[in-house]
């Protein structure tokens, strides 16, 4: 049975989004060792910062995206320094619950400032060209292009710069990194910045793909978690591949099950993955 | 010239003290072996010296400078490099990246200048590594990982190399190779403080030894004197 | 400040139901150290089970989408709800055999969302995203005039609350509970002693879930109209906040936490209508709860009423 190529294209778009978001989450986890539920709200805040720049300040979308990204990065650093860093000596579960509290706060700040109505970026609504039975919407192309660029930049950062290699090292084994003289406390700030920027970009892409709602990030969290865990938590490459697997899996599933059940696909893939390969698809999980 | 001077060291985990009033010295060209039964606190002692554990009382002096209680990321800048027993490499980084991280404490200028030379020195010492610089360290064999760990520690050309059970888990001929390399490193001018389970072998290669039992330094002296001592042989040297 | 009697009663009923939910959560987290993020799902399953079994498909007009409905007495609903919720708990609990800590959290979270998705989509069974209306209220017409309905209902909720409190505390003090606590500290220990820890975890899951299902039934029959948006995962997080703030590991703490958190959320009902930021109040309340949660975790990690040793120990178990 031939799968409609439109689904595969959609899957690539959604997959790019999940892959990027997952990369940020897994980088943060690698160094901080706890699952940050507020990550979804970092995504949302980034999207809303960009919205404010785009719609309130009337700035072009590209500038707004940059503003959103910077805002997201700054937010993650501030939240880490003000809140999470105070709990670094505690059990990861405490940090998980703290992140829940943080999520409450961020999400409701969004509700207060921007209300709960769906919001949209000021981008022209265009028909996309059709080719080979696939409609390519401009936002979708933008999303894939952005993801590829950012993923490429991150790859360069993590593999070709000294500090990027240090990030991966500290993510592998924080104690050993300290033994080698790496100041892991400073590294945590850098990683929070990078993670926050990535989250913001993913949130903005989500907003471009559909719309902005206060709980947009939280809703997206489940497939993102699924991708990260499937790929092996802490492993950047795994998160990216996991993201595409989940994204394509979700979209292609529409051919077989009602589209409302897309999130279930992520869950099922995750459970299968966890039961068969608990260290992730590549066995590289760092926990 | 006394390089490392540990005096009256008391440390442990939380409220449980494992190391009691230990004195230890390493001269700048010596190789000193710490031996003793399991659970005697040998690893704990090493960890306290490099700052991975909190010291309750006592002092650690390096080259006259007080380094007691410095955290590991600062200790390395003083010239002490530590190779833990396990988890001593970054498994997801390549061999070369592991060596790069070993050289983290070098300033930018030092790094640019002679990073390649230093890497080549490590490769000369451990030729196996030169064959596979881009292989993920976690996929190497136990013996090869040990070499990466030691190579990384040597990237900084430390004054003192601290090794925690370097021969642990290795096949017999690899044990020989490891000890050979350690002696070689010592002869090139690096002082070595090592904890070893392979007590007899360690003493044979070392200048001096310290016997740690139940957290106390029960015996201390030149390696020969310890090997000759009936008491030490009976109690600690087993049948190796 | 106008405090009307009926407003107080409504608030008390809501607090009571949340307290029951918190008790169920405490068995999972406080006793067994399980990171269960599916509680809203159990609540939903119980509510909908009870509603479907007791609300016949009426001719609610052209928009009616539900085709399945029964006319059983409310008691049947209240018995079936904990059963189906408990079974759902058992199902999700199976994942806890192989997973623990944060993985379990995510899988249970996703599981609850899945349940909510199914409820939202299978309109033939649940009315989907539309409100499932006309759920019967127990003794609706038959109370003596002197007894306000809300007081009666609060009495009912209180009865269930006190009963479950006593029951679950009994479990906690029994050999069953001791094994749960041992699992919470370090699962390898009871395992080594020959206990089938998987089975204990499953039982814990099922019991807590069943209680949540009963709470769901109580909720459905009180508000007499339910819809999927009442059962979002935010609810699970709120209950977590209650259990933590009140003191994890202690049933009294769970109830106290429910009172505190729900109290804060409901307190604004009593404020006069025209204060500034009136529209934003619901969101401010949630922010306050978030801040309170973080503050409690920082200054008093054992919660307001928790047992220092027991709760802190519960915090260091699991998730490694």
Automatic annotation (TrEMBL), chain A:
GO biological process: one example: amino acid transport
InterPro entries the record matches: ABC_transp_permease, BCAA_transport_permease
Pfam families: BPD_transp_2
Entry GO terms, CC: plasma membrane
Assigned keywords, A-Z: Amino-acid transport, Cell inner membrane, Cell membrane, Membrane, Transmembrane, Transmembrane helix, Transport
Domain of life: Archaea
CDD domains cross-referenced by the UniProt entry: TM_PBP1_LivH_like
Membrane-spanning residues: 12-39, 59-80, 92-114, 134-158, 187-208, 264-282
Subcellular location(s) per record: Cell membrane
Tagged with keyword rRNA processing: no
Membrane topology according to the record: Multi-pass membrane protein
The family this protein is said to belong to: Belongs to the binding-protein-dependent transport system permease family. LivHM subfamily.
PANTHER family listed in its UniProt record: BRANCHED-CHAIN AMINO ACID TRANSPORT SYSTEM PERMEASE PROTEIN LIVH, HIGH-AFFINITY BRANCHED-CHAIN AMINO ACID TRANSPORT SYSTEM PERMEASE PROTEIN LIVH
Protein name: Branched-chain amino acid ABC transporter permease
Protein source organism: Halorubrum yunnanense
Automatic annotation (TrEMBL), chain B:
InterPro entries cross-referenced by the UniProt entry: AAA+_ATPase, ABC_transporter-like_ATP-bd, ABC_transporter-like_CS, BCAA_Transport_ATP-bd_LivF, P-loop_NTPase
Domain ABC transporter: 1-239
GO BP: any one term: amino acid transport
Taxonomic classification: Archaea, Methanobacteriati, Methanobacteriota, Stenosarchaea group, Halobacteria
Matching Pfam families: ABC_tran
One GO MF term: ATP binding
Key word S-adenosyl-L-methionine present: no
Protein source organism: Halorubrum yunnanense
Highest taxon of source: Archaea
SUPFAM superfamilies recorded: P-loop containing nucleoside triphosphate hydrolases
The protein's name: ABC transporter ATP-binding protein
Keywords: Amino-acid transport, ATP-binding, Nucleotide-binding, Transport
Family: Belongs to the ABC transporter superfamily.
Recorded coiled-coil stretches: none
């Amino acid at each position: 049975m031939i799968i409609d190529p439109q689904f595969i294209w959609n899957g690539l778009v959604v997959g790019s989004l999940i892959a990027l978001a997952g990369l940020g989450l897994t980088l943060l986890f690698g160094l901080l060792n706890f699952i940050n539920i507020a990550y979804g709200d970092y995504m949302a805040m980034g999207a809303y910062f960009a919205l404010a720049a785009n719609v309130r300040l009337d700035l072009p979308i590209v500038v707004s995206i940059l503003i959103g990204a910077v805002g997201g990065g700054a937010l993650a650093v501030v939240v880490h320094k003000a809140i999470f860093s105070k709990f670094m000596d505690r059990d990861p579960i405490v940090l998980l619950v703290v992140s829940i509290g943080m999520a409450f706060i961020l999400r409701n700040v969004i509700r207060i400032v921007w209300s709960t109505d769906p919001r949209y970026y000021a981008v022209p609504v265009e028909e996309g060209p059709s080719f080979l039975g696939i409609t390519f919407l401009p936002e979708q192309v933008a999303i894939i292009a952005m993801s590829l660029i950012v993923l490429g930049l991150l790859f360069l950062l993590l593999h070709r710069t000294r500090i990027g290699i240090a990030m991966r090292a500290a993510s592998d084994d924080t104690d050993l990194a300290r033994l080698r003289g790496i100041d892991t406390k400073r590294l945590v700030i850098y990683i929070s910045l990078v993670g926050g920027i990535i989250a913001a970009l993913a949130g903005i892409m989500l907003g471009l793909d559909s719309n902005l709602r206060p709980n947009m990030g939280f809703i997206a969290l489940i497939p993102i978690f699924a991708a990260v865990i499937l790929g092996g938590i802490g492993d950047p490459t795994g998160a990216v591949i996991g993201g595409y697997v989940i994204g394509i899996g979700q979209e292609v599933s529409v051919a077989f099950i009602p589209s409302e059940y897309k999130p279930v696909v992520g869950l099922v893939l995750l459970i299968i993955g966890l039961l068969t390969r608990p260290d992730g698809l590549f066995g590289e999980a760092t926990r | 010239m006394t390089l490392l001077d540990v005096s009256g060291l008391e440390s442990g985990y939380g409220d449980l003290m494992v190391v009691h009033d230990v004195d230890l010295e390493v001269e700048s060209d010596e190789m000193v072996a710490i031996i003793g039964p399991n659970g005697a606190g040998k690893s704990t002692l090493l960890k306290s010296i490099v700052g991975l554990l909190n010291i309750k009382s006592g002092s650690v002096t390096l080259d006259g400078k007080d380094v007691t209680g410095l955290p590991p990321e600062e200790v390395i800048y003083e010239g002490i490099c530590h190779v833990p027993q396990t988890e001593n490499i970054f498994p997801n980084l390549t061999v070369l990246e592991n060596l790069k991280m070993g050289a983290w404490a070098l300033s930018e200028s030092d790094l640019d200048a002679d990073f390649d030379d230093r890497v080549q020195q490590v490769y000369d010492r451990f030729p196996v590594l030169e064959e596979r610089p881009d292989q993920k360290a976690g996929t190497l064999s136990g013996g090869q990982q040990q070499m990466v760990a030691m190579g990384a520690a040597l990237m900084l050309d430390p004054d003192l190399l601290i090794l925690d059970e370097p021969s642990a888990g290795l096949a017999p001929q690899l044990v020989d190779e490891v000890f050979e390399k350690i002696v070689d490193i010592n002869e090139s001018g690096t002082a070595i403080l090592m904890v070893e389970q392979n007590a007899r072998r360690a003493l044979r290669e070392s200048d001096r030894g310290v016997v740690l039992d139940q957290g106390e330094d029960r015996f201390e002296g030149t390696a020969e004197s310890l090997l000759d001592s009936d008491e030490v042989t009976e109690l600690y040297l087993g049948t190796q | 400040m106008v405090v009307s009697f009926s407003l107080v009663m409504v608030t008390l009923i809501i607090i009571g139901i949340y307290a029951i939910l918190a008790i169920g959560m405490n068995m999972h987290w406080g006793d067994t150290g399980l990171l269960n993020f599916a509680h809203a799902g159990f609540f939903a399953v119980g509510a909908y089970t009870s509603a479907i079994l007791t609300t016949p498909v009426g001719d609610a007009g052209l928009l009616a989408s539900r085709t399945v409905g029964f006319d059983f007495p409310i008691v049947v609903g209240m018995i079936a709800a904990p059963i189906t919720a408990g079974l759902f708990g058992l199902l999700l609990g199976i994942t806890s055999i192989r997973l623990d800590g944060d993985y379990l959290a995510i899988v249970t979270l996703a599981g609850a969302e899945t349940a909510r998705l199914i409820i939202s989509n299978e309109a033939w069974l649940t009315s989907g995203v539309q409100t499932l209306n006309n759920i019967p209220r127990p003794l609706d017409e038959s109370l003596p005039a002197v007894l306000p309905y809300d007081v009666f209902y609060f009495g009912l909720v209180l009865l269930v609350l006190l009963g479950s409190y006593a029951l679950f505390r009994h479990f906690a003090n029994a050999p069953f509970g001791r094994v749960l606590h041992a699992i919470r500290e370090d699962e390898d220990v009871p395992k080594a002693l020959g206990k089938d820890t998987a089975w204990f975890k499953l039982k814990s899951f099922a019991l807590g879930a069943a209680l949540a299902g009963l709470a769901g039934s109580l909720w459905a029959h009180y508000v007499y109209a339910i819809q999927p948006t009442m059962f979002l995962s935010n609810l699970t997080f709120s209950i977590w906040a209650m259990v933590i703030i009140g003191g994890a590991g202690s049933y009294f703490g769970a109830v106290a936490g429910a009172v505190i958190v729900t109290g804060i959320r409901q307190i604004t009902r009593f404020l006069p209508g025209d204060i500034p930021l009136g529209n934003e109040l619901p969101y401010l309340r949630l922010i306050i709860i978030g801040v309170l949660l973080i503050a409690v975790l920082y200054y008093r990690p054992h919660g307001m009423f928790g047992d220092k040793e027991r709760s802190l120990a519960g915090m260091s178990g699991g998730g490694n």
